[in-house]
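Hi R.,

Here's the chain you asked about this morning:
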Amino acid sequence: MSLILFWILRDTTPVMFVEPSSTDMQLDRGDIVNSDKINDVYWRVSVRHVSSMLSEICKEKGYSVLTHKNVLMDGARMKESYIYLCGPSHKPVVNARAVVSKSATESVRCVERYANVTKTVVRKYPFSLKYVCGETFVSKTQIIREPIQACTWLHAIDIVESVWD
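And here is the predicted structure, written out as tokens:
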């Protein structure tokens, strides 16, 4: 019986990877996912399907971060606010946002790259990272205290929100 249930809940939606392009910042920002969608089992299966595909792309291409802008589902761009951190601690997240306190005392110069554009951006930290885990679909908060994590997360969030240009 569980084998049949697994087969039914397997997503077969065609998912394709889209190489990052400098024109991606002209695309719409990622949509915030509401609780109805987060609680929808079919949507969860779909997001897990995307995550497994991006895990393979990370291994093949050596990216550090991918977002909804890199995903075509059934021929259309993924609309949801989605970030996939590559590397050993792969982490798919939905609805990521940074809450930077006015009292954030540290800053770091981040060398950031997207597609064929590289620039240096000053980022403030520590900050609270709020997100929905793309594996468990539970809301989480993480304090980001390390400069490299601050660079990675704030850069990814700017890409998702189409403000990195």
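One quick note: Residues 2-160 form a domain with the Peptide Deformylase fold (CATH 3.90.45.10).

Cheers,
M.
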